[in-house]
Design a protein that fits this description.
The structure is a single chain. The protein has 336 residues and is mostly beta strands. The chain has 3 domains: 1-106; 113-191, UDP N-Acetylglucosamine Acyltransferase, domain 1, CATH 2.160.10; 207-332, Hexapeptide repeat proteins (UDP N-Acetylglucosamine Acyltransferase, domain 1, 3 Solenoid). It is 0% helix and 39% strand. It has an 18-stranded mixed beta sheet, with no helix packed on it. The chain has an 11-stranded mixed beta sheet with strand order 1-2-3-6-9-12-15-18-21-24-27, with no helix packed on it. Strand 2 and strand 3 (29-34) form a beta hairpin. The chain starts with 7 loop residues before the first strand and ends with a strand.
């Protein structure tokens, strides 16, 4: 075990300071550690790595290669900092996270859980990379941005401000996400081209911007959604469907095929509207209902529960159908 009696002096590129060689848990002689820094006896600092400033390396963490940990940075858990990586400022690497290559972490950047940052990526501000996320190539993450889940961020991507990347999103190319933009679930952004998997493979798509300025759900580029329409974050619109006027697609609802939702109609919860079905007026499809075929809902008609409305069915005015099936050439209406 190291002793202060073995204290010497070492130049960490900013002048000679009192330092010592770390004694690694396996008994090998490790890299240089400034006396102002703290490295636990259980941690490893390999021969060419260094720890200085007021940095802290704890637990079973490893600083390897030519990596440097400085200032007030912390590395703990079973985290690894390798290659020519630099961790400085108040940056933290924790859990079983890995930072390697020519990566630079500074300010209050935090890499945790099983996340990996490699290549020539740069992290700054108070950004967080967590879960099983990977940030690589020359990606830049800053501000209060958060990257998590099993997402991948690479290329020359810039993720900044309060942007969020999660799920199984793939962000590459020269993409820039900022403000409160989100890319999640199975989104993929390649340069200026954004793609999303609606269930049959990735297709060009974009997030809808709601009338109040909030980020809405994913919409395939082949579909049309008017700027006056509300699409919830978890709702999806794809195929050649058309959503117009003041319609609302809420919850985890899906509208696809050649379906049309118009007027003040609402598709909510886990309802689906597909094929050539139409909802208009104040019609509502909610619950786990399915409106398909050439079905039409108008007036204040409501389908709910596990109802399936198909073929050439017409529901009008105040008709409410819950947990039923309507098919064929049915025409149901209630006079005003």
């Amino acid at each position: 075990m190291w002793s202060r009696k073995k204290t010497r002096r070492y130049d960490f590129d900013f002048g000679v300071v009192p330092a010592r060689r770390h004694a690694n848990p396996d008994g090998s002689l490790g890299g240089w550690v400034a006396l102002t820094a703290t490295v636990a006896p259980t941690a490893t600092v390999t021969t060419n790595a260094s720890v200085f400033g007021s940095a802290v390396v704890e637990d079973e963490a490893m600083i390897a290669g030519n990596a440097q940990v400085s200032d007030h940075a912390k590395v703990n858990g079973s985290a690894v900092v390798d290659g020519f990586a630099q961790v400085s400022g108040h940056a933290v690497v924790s859990g079983s996270a890995s930072v390697r290559g020519w990566v630079q972490l500074r300010d209050g950047a935090h890499v945790c859980d099983s996340a990996e940052v490699f290549g020539k990526a740069r992290l700054s501000g108070r950004c967080v990379v967590s879960g099983r996320a990977r940030v690589f190539d020359q990606a830049r993450v800053s501000g209060d941005a958060s990257i998590g889940g099993a997402s991948r961020v690479g290329g020359n991507t810039v993720v900044t401000d309060s942007a969020r990347v999660g799920g199984a999103a793939r962000i590459v190319g020269t993409t820039r996400l900022g403000d409160q933009q989100r890319a999640d679930h199975y989104a993929r952004v390649d340069g200026e081209l954004q793609c999303f998997d609606f269930g049959d493979g990735f297709v060009p798509a974009h997030r809808h911007t709601n009338p109040d300025g909030s980020a809405g759900g994913w919409v395939a580029d082949t579909a049309f959604v008017a700027s006056t329409v509300f699409v919830a974050t978890t709702a999806r619109v794809f195929g050649a469907s058309r959503i117009r006027e003041h319609a609302r697609i809420e919850g985890e609802a899906r509208v696809f095929g050649f379906a049309v939702v118009d007027g003040c109609a609402v598709v909510a919860d886990s309802a689906e509207v597909s094929d050539s079905a139409q909802l208009y007026g104040n019609a509502v499809a909610r619950g786990m209902s399915r409106v398909c075929g050439d079905a039409q809902l108008s007036g204040s008609a409501v389908v709910a529960g596990t109802t399936r409305v198909g073929a050439r069915t017409l529901l009008a005015c105040g008709m409410l159908i819950d947990a039923a099936g309507v098919d064929g050439s049915s025409r149901l209406s209630v006079s005003a």
